[in-house]
Amino acid sequence: MQPVKPRRDPAPSRLAYRISRLWMRRGVRRAVTVWLPATVAVCAVAGVALYPSHRALIAQTYTELRQDVITHPRFMVDDVTVAGTAADVEALIREKIAPVLPASALTLDLAALRLRIEEVPAVRNAALSINETNTLTIDIQQRRPAAVWRHAGGLDLIDRHGVVLGPLDARAARPDLPLVIGQGAAPKVSEAQIILDAIRPILGDVRGIVRMGERRWDIVLAGNRRILLPESRPEQAALRLMALNRSTDLLQRDIALVDLRDEARAIVRLGPDAVPQMRRLRAMTQEEDA
Amino acid sequence: MTRIALYKSQRAMRERREAALRRGNVAIVDVGSSKMTCLVLEVDAAKLRAPRADGVGRLDGHAALRVIGASTTQSRGIDLGEVVSMEEVERGLRTVVSAAQKMAETRVDHVIACFSGGRPRSYGLLGEAEVEHGEVSASDIGAALGSCDVPDYGEGREVLHALPVNFTLDSRTGLSDPRGLTGAKLTVDMHMMTVARAPVQNLLQCMRRCDLELSGLAHSAYAAGLSSLTEEELDLGAACIDIGGGTTGISVFIRKQLIYADSVRMGGAHVTRDISQGFGVSAGLAERLKTVHGGLVATSMDDLEMLSLVASDPHTDPSRNRISRTELIGIMRPRVEEILEAVRERLDAASFSDLPGRRIVLTGGSSQIPGLEDIAQHILGRRVRIGRPLYIPGLPQAKTAPQFAAAVGLALHLVKPQDECWDFEMPDDRIGGQRIRRALRWFKESW
After folding, report:
1. Collapsing DSSP states into helix, strand and coil, what is residue B135?
2. Is B211 in contact with A21 (Cβ distance < 8 A)?
């Protein structure tokens, strides 16, 4: 048998007993758990709302606290990685975002920054992200130069949508790109591309394609020969020219100009030496006949 | 006390209890000498008087009852069922009530209590009235009840229970509800039980100090009988012996009515005290010896079963280290026999042997001593059984032991009181000719 220890009296004190019985009243419990907190909350809100100094203090504290969090080193973005572009474009992009940084990751407006970066002509699309080491990563999709545009102001590189990517020093620098010439040529560069695709077999002869009066195209061949294309469906006309060339070797002959503007018939202007030559040959045949 | 005062006091008691019942939650507190029990009851007033499913008669009220909280604690400051230390009893009440409230998750304000002290004394009263209109009406019963000759039961005592046992109409006896029967002279046999006023006042004061309102009071002998006697035993006549800690209550029932109640001021605590003195051990160890190893009939095996007295309590200095179980039985048996002898004396004085049923049911904590049945049969001269309280809904398993008979019986008494008759109006001329009230009643009844 275990020794019997004198135990503490389990009786609740009179105060504890009264309080516990009071607590069992629904009204009392409701008053303490619902009405008392509600009253305290209402009083607190009223106390704050009624005194401007309290409001100002709260606003100031809030601002300070917010500023503290925002400017915390953990959230500061100052490193930038630019991917998917050449060094010259990257320099332009860095120049664009230089005034914004360093900034907090919490307040940095990536959408606005993206629009700013996309102002750079060579950038077609930019994807911005901030990673866990607070590095701003800019993924660039660059515009590809599709043609060289010669106009009154000089030479420019343009992409396939006609967006000017930048000036070009000399035509010889990009011999791989076609040359489009004339005012209003750049926005229609895709049309020119289709025409050039159609005359692919003679592409070596082509020197450039000229926008005439901002409405139709001329193809300029070596030797300052011109092919005049109609306003509507110029690619069809180009294909007709190719067919003509294949059957008659038209472009091997001494011609100055092929006018394809009239769909019904092509008009060929002979070269300056060709006319006397033709007359001489005609005279010879007439003599033989005679 | 005059007859009218008896009428009024019984009616006030009934009204207080009914008011508590209407509140829904009532606490039952059994203030015993060795333990206090509190049951929190949820009473469904709608089911209380509901008709039975088969449409015959009404439910006993058990269906309306549900125990939602129960707790028991050791009681101190109570000797022979009476408060001797207000402070200690108050602490015990606080413990037991707050524990039961916590279990019930509700607050109770009204308490029905039972206690076992107060030296109950039974009186048989006889009342007579002429039937006014040929058929017995409620007012005739009221008149008969009001005409009972109240004996002089002495200063400092008050009536605890007063219940009609039997009605006689002319020469026909054995009626429990004579309303509607035709006859000329109505006689009522009433049982009245008085207790000393001081213990009741002390108990009331204890309740008041615990912020509880005492809405009803019953004697534990009566309550124990209600819960541990079966319906048949109650009807045919039986005695319930509630052997508690400090007192042993005796109640005799016939035709479901209490006809005699008494108490012997001895109980299990005296057995414990004998063991404590006999072996020189502490009361705690003595109690443990009694409950774990105690018995009343020794066999040869008990000589060999040695019980250790040391190493259990370093503060006592037992004269011997080991005792045999036979010695323990030898100390317990004379006291139990003494108690039962006293019970037999009281039963003989009440001429219990003249009753038709004559069953005896032992209940209360000390009725669990092994071998008590044999001894009691020998001393009381007839077959006895150990009674456990009736099951009531929600009663925890731990509270179904015989020592909770009084608490459970009090709950049964609460939902099925047998004192509806006090609701019957007594004719006004017996109260003293209050003409104005009579005029008012006539006015009320006519419109």
Report:
1. strand
2. yes
Using alpha carbons, select from A246, A245, A250 the residue that is nearest to residue A274: A250
- Condensed to tens digits (0 to 9), the pLDDT of residues A53-63 reads 888 988 999 99
Q: Give the distance from residue B1's alpha carbon to the nearest chain A alpha carbon, in angstroms.
A: 38
Of the candidates B443, B373, B415, B432, the residue with the CA atom closest to the CA atom of residue B60 = B415
| H or E element, residue B1 | none
Of the partner residues A11, A21, A24, the one whose CB lies closest to the CB of residue B95: A11
Q: Return the beta strands (E) in B345-440 as ranges.
A: 359-363, 384-386
Distance in Å, alpha carbon of B313 to nearest chain A alpha carbon: 5
Query: Is the CB of residue B388 less than 8 Å from the CB of residue B402?
Result: yes
The answer to whether A12 contacts B314, with C-beta atoms less than 8 Å apart, is no
Q: Residue A84 in 3-state DSSP? A: coil
Distance (Å, whole) CA B316 – CA B439: 76
Distance separating alpha carbons of residues A267 and A261, to the nearest angstrom: 9
Average model confidence (pLDDT) for chain A? 83
Which ipTM value was assigned to this complex? 0.78
CATH number of the domain enclosing B171: 3.30.1490.110
A15 lies within 8 A of chain B by CB: no
Candidates A1, A14, A17; nearest CB to B311: A1
Return the residue of B nearest to A4 by Cα.
Answer: B313
Using CA atoms, how far apart are residues B121 and A190, in angstroms rounded to an integer? 124
Distance from CA of A39 to the nearest CA of B (A): 27
DSSP A284: H
If you average pLDDT over each of A3-12, A176-185, B402-411, which comes out highest? Answer: B402-411
Measured in angstroms, the CA of A14 and the nearest CA of chain B are apart by 8
- State whether B314 and A3 contact (CB < 8 Å): yes
**What's the domain count of chain B?**
2
Please indicate, yes or no, if residue B81 is contained in any of the structural domains.
Answer: no
Choosing among 3.20.20.140, 3.40.630.30, 3.10.20.310, 3.30.70.360, the CATH entry for A73-142 is 3.10.20.310
